[in-house]
Amino acid sequence: MFKVYGMNSIVAYSVSHIISFSSISRSLFHGFEQYIGDYYPVLVHLSNATILFFLLYYMYRKRIFLRV
């Protein structure tokens, strides 16, 4: 897991500032807010990290790396 983030850390940083993963997560899990209550922000942050991880994992599997 750390290798996936480490190989594309610049992409992870850039994409997290360009794309609002919070709005994507909130639109996906909007109905769960009433059931989860105070843990809803935790679900949103975990789903943000998961979406970013799968994007970086796809790039890692295809051997797409941003180098400076």
List the keywords.
68 residues, elongated, mainly alpha, 0% strand
The best one-word shape is elongated
Major sheet size, sense and barrel closure = none
What order do the helices and strands follow?
HHHHH
**DSSP strand count:** 0
- The N- to C-terminal Cα distance equals 22 Å
The count of helical stretches stands at 5
Helix content: over 70%
**Share in β-strands:** under 5%
Structural commentary:
The chain is an all-alpha fold. It has one domain. 74% of the residues lie in helices and 0% in strands. It contains 5 helices and no strands. The protein has helices spanning 2-7, 9-18, 21-28, 33-36, 40-61. Helix 3 (21-28) crosses helix 5 (40-61). The two termini are 22 Å apart.
